[in-house]
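Service request form, structural biology core

Requester: graduate student, group of Dr. S.
Request type: structure prediction, single chain
Budget code: on file
Notes: please return the result as structure tokens.

Sequence provided:
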Amino acid sequence: MVYLDHAATTPVPRDVADAMYEVLTEQFGNPSSQYGLGLEMKRRVGLWRKTVAEALGCEPQQLTFTSCGTEGDNWAIQAACHQNRRLGRHIVTTAVEHSAVLASCQRMESQGYEVTYLAPDSQGHITAAQVLDAVRPDTALVSVMMVNNELGSVYPIAEIAQGLKEKNPQTLLHTDAVQGFLKVPFAARTLGADLIAISGHKVGGPKGVGALYIGPRVRNPQPLIAGGGQENGLRSGTEATAQLSGFAKAVELRQEHLSQTLSHMADIKAYAARALQTIPDLILIGDGQSPHILSVSLVGWPSQNIVNDLGAQGICISAGSACHRGKPSHVVAALHLPKKVAGGVIRLSFGPETTQSDIDACVEALRRHHDSRLPML
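Core staff response, request fulfilled:
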């Protein structure tokens, strides 16, 4: 199998699986229990929180574990709007956010909020000036993703944060950093965002675990789940200790050689871009600066047919976000590309394990697809 869909999910290293297995079979205590097994697990949860917090660049007490990036995005938007409910009922976001953000904003619209959806240019760019120009005195929240999950575009979160201080200091800033965490350099304590959502399974961890950074300007956020008071009373429910152990271990492994890993992925992306452009009718889409996501179009060939054909050969790529399940991508639609270009967009995404041989196999398969089939769009 050739796996080139790391933006959808990542393989779990054996060390991560082993860490989870130990918790499942030996250290299985409930962190709320008051005997030795439970107290040990409570201690470990604290250590895992510290590991992830250090990688994110924040204090452990500022990090609340969640089940996924989607949960973090939903919670962040609700918390920000609740805090600023007296400031106003206006939200600024982009038309190319992950569905978790867009659906949350649409829900706020149903509750009387007005949402401004900013469109990118044809290359996928969103500028800080564009965001700040849309901010009004009644803007409760700005939500802009750090790295676009389909294009690899990196958005200027720090510049937006600085601009908000000058234009409307009460407006809170949320960023979906699921594709940015351990992919592009940043630290929560200096970035300027008030709420940052991340996910474990995008960095070699298991599915079913993520985290939300809640900065000092977010005052007394409403608990996401009421109950026994876990996660400092913000998210009750028995901690998913095996997933937390796997998340922390994955973060630890990525941190060990992070600069080399990022350099490797950037080199693989550059190699792939050069090799893919030797295929007739294939063009690059956007100029995303993230090291791990490359969007291209085989102009005139339907993307889902390409994905199906390569999948049958054991080559895993995507026609866009995995969350779209084959439906047309709102991200591609927002670029206003010609129909034949938009219909042929596919995404390749890379990880530490990706090799040039993987790219060569994908290029050859795409070349065969091009040569053996007539365009249909």
